[in-house]
Amino acid sequence: MSSVLKQPAPGRPKDLEKRAAILDAGKRLFPRQGFEGTSMDAIAAEAGVSKLTVYSHFTDKETLFREVIQAKCEEQLPLSLFLADLDGPIRGQLMTIARAFFTLITSEDAISLHRMMTAQTQQSMKLAQMFWEAGPKRLQDSFEMFLRAEIAAGQLDIPDPRRATGQFFCLLKGELHARMMFGCCDPISDLDVGAHLEATVDLFLRAYSPR
Q1: Which domains does the chain have, with CATH numbers?
Q2: Which of left, alpha, beta for 210 (phi over 0: left; psi -120 to 50: alpha)?
């Protein structure tokens, strides 16, 4: 009787689960304890894995931090959000992006991370650059891609899409985000947030709709 060789079960799903657990641990610990205050030992304990496992997925703490920032952004603003729907109204697409962006930047974790980066920029320019490229720059690149598609379709008239990208996100932050960063803001109602986002999108469209 010929024996049947039993194929080993694939290990990748388990590896992916561990990687996800490590990222989730980083999402919880970095905003609470800061970059310097978060050790790889703490990440491993929070994720329920060994420190060796953490290092096998992420070379060092800087790499893990970058991946955490990118994963956090992708949760709220996946790349699919920036695929231009040329058959739909552009205002609706801009509002969807605006709501997702504002929800992300005003979350407790995002506010904590922003304060942390502001406090230690002079100490670690490398860390600041990693944060910028994994978070804000990625979002700007994606939104610029969206704008260029809308420009090519005749939905927008923008001479400098990169500059317009920065204008859009800065307008969305506005006074509300600044007050939250300073900690001098009363709870913001959904009505106020909606009015702010709609006014911002309408201003942007008045500036860049085809003449």
Answers
A1: 12-58 (1.10.10.60), 66-208 (1.10.357.10)
A2: beta
